[in-house]
Write a structure and sequence with these properties.
Strand order of the largest sheet: 6-7-8-11-10-9
Structural class: alpha+beta
Oligomer: single chain
CATH architecture of the largest domain: 3-Layer(aba) Sandwich
Pfam families: GntR, UTRA
Protein name: GntR family transcriptional regulator
Distance between the termini: 58 Å
Number of domains: 2
Keywords: DNA-binding, Transcription, Transcription regulation
Helix content: 25-40%
Radius of gyration: 23 Å
Number of strands: 12
Shape: elongated
InterPro entries: Bact_HTH_transcr_reg, Chorismate_lyase_/UTRA_dom_sf, Tscrpt_reg_HTH_GntR, UTRA, WH-like_DNA-bd_sf, WH_DNA-bd_sf
Strand content: 25-35%
Length: about 260
Amino acid sequence: MNDPRDTQGSDAPSGGTPGAPVRSGIPEHGRIPKYYAVKTQLESLLDELGEGGALPTERDLAARFGVARETVRQAVRELLIQGRVRRKGRGTVAAGPKLEQPLSLVSYTEGVRRQGKVPGRSLIGLDRVPAGAQLAEQLDIGANDPVWHLERVLLADDERVGLESTYVSVDRFPYLERDFDPDSSFYAFLRDQLGVRFAAAEERIETVLATPREALLIGTPPALPMLLLNRVSRDTDGRPVERVRSLYRGDRFSFTTHLTGA
């Protein structure tokens, strides 16, 4: 049953500059839901705690803020989605800043290393499968031609942060199963061992929810928003090299790019 204390909003000072955006999510009438007021106070507490600092229990927070535990729970859920906190064992701790992955022709490994994190991958499977019509068109091969499907969990400092599926032509890379170390960078393997140079890519980004299987592999709740990247990369001759489907945790990743005028 909902606590009657949480049926009303909280007053907030008006303030703000005329014509400015809505102030930090606070409506113009100055009344905000109780959970949002708690969330704002928790954000200040997280700044004090620093990365890895443990939040008090729901019971203690409810007593501190004078609200029901469900109100605290809702505030913490939003902070989880935003990546401000993460679960650790049976508790909740302050999370570090999101990982910034550049939207460019660099590997996941390079992007994570630039931020002082240790990249890693955990192999789910490396299998030969028929291409099918859509994948065949993307890789410029026959629909019945075989492709390698390389599926790996992405890690940053041993934390599971994503899931990556890579498809390449078996005819072009016949010895992938024998020669490639699945714990290493696929881009580095293609570049250093096979002399493949990437020149261009088409990439699409969207927000999705993980399937139950994906959520289990990444170790997240199914309701956590994900960032999905679909990419087809080409070499310097314009030939398709790979088709990659990368699923990143929305609470742990952001993407950056550099834009210039025409």
